[in-house]
Amino acid sequence: MPNKVNISTELLTWYDAHAREMPWRVPPQARLRGELPDPYHVWLSEVMLQQTTVAAVGKYFHDFTTRWPRIQDLAAAQDADVMAAWAGLGYYARARNLLKCARFVTSNLNGAFPKTERELMKLPGIGPYTAAAITAIAFDGRASVLDGNVERVMARIFAIENPLPGAKEELRALALSQMPNSRYGDYAQAVMDLGATICTPRRLQCAQCPIRPKCRAHAQGIAPDLPNKTPKPKKPTRHGIAYVIRRDDGALLLTRRPDRGLLGGMLCWPCTDWGDVDAAHRPPISADWQALNAEVRHTFTHFHLHLKVMLANAETAPSDLGQFVTLREFNPDALPSVMQKVWNIAKHQIGAHNSPKET
DNA sequence: AAATCGTGGGT
DNA sequence: TACCCAAGATT
Known about the structure:
Layout: H1 8-18, H2 28-32, H3 39-48, H4 54-67, H5 71-75, H6 79-86, H7 93-108, H8 117-120, H9 128-139, H10 148-157, H11 168-177, H12 184-197, H13 216-220, E1 237-246, E2 252-256, E3 267-268, E4 290-299, E5 304-313, E6 323-325, H14 337-358
Parallel strand pairs: 1-5
Antiparallel strand pairs: 2-3, 2-6, 4-5
Helix pairs in contact: 1-12, 3-4, 3-9, 9-12, 10-11, 10-12
This protein binds a DNA duplex through residues 45-57, 88-94, 97, 124-130, 133, 145, 147-150, 188-189, 192, 195-196, 201-203, 229, 232, 261-264, 298-302, 336-338.
InterPro entries: A/G_AdeGlyc_MutY, DNA_glycosylase, Endonuclease-III-like_CS2, HhH-GPD_domain, HhH_base_excis_C, HhH_motif, MIG/MutY, MutY_C
Pfam families: HHH, HhH-GPD, NUDIX_4
EC number: 3.2.2.31
């Protein structure tokens, strides 16, 4: 039985008046005049926005586009520079895939992104959502985006009580059924803006909602309860020790993690493995190790981490342990957040230790 | 196909 | 505090 409800007209009208401004976005009035955004900007912003808030992305998008204005510039960048620029944003596989993708598009596609979902999906780091988003937003192609916002909006409009992620394909079909016959890019951004500002997970703004009259969940008084989700398992806690090695000239020893796995490709302090019980002190080099009082607590996607910090002075270290970074070159912002926390503890101790010398 | 992969903000 | 959540992709 065909579904006659359609919200695209109301949504586009609402978007014309309420579209949020973002650095990578072309506002609806300009799009109606035929202007489209730079596909490089759309791709970069969409990858950064994967599981990441607009607020967190802002600074990184500005940094990347200032430093690498075109995709060819990014393709020519050093791996270490891109990983450092991404540090703090999380999900570091995105940065590695970003570079792979930039180099492929530059080398094999003359710097131009494909315009179809099928072709975009072949590129590293571009999945179903991002392929649809680039198609619709950058090229105004007919594509239906399905992200967390769209899932929530569809679940409420149609009062879908089946829990996610099982209900995903059902919600995908409903989202597809709502597509207008033009303005695909504006429509995609309109649904996501609605989900981000009106049809939010909590503290819904139904009084401001342009499609409230068509919302079955609102009519039934269950909008705040949707979408249902299967409960997540509790996170275990893991334990480890981070080792900060300092040369007398102030240089610090850092190691680069392998490309696969947690914090892959990122610069880190040498660490023990992170296990279910307190880690035994296994110093990476023989030295006069000092245990610091404070402990780093950090939560990853699927476990909590308690990280003790130990500090030692050493003039040399085996190269397979890592490399000394001079005091001048050391930039804590190039470390992932958990390792920045380690530094914040270690640097206080170093400062406390050194200050008597200088006075 | 269920598990893995970060981080910061909101409640 | 503890949990939820964010413009998901990959294996």
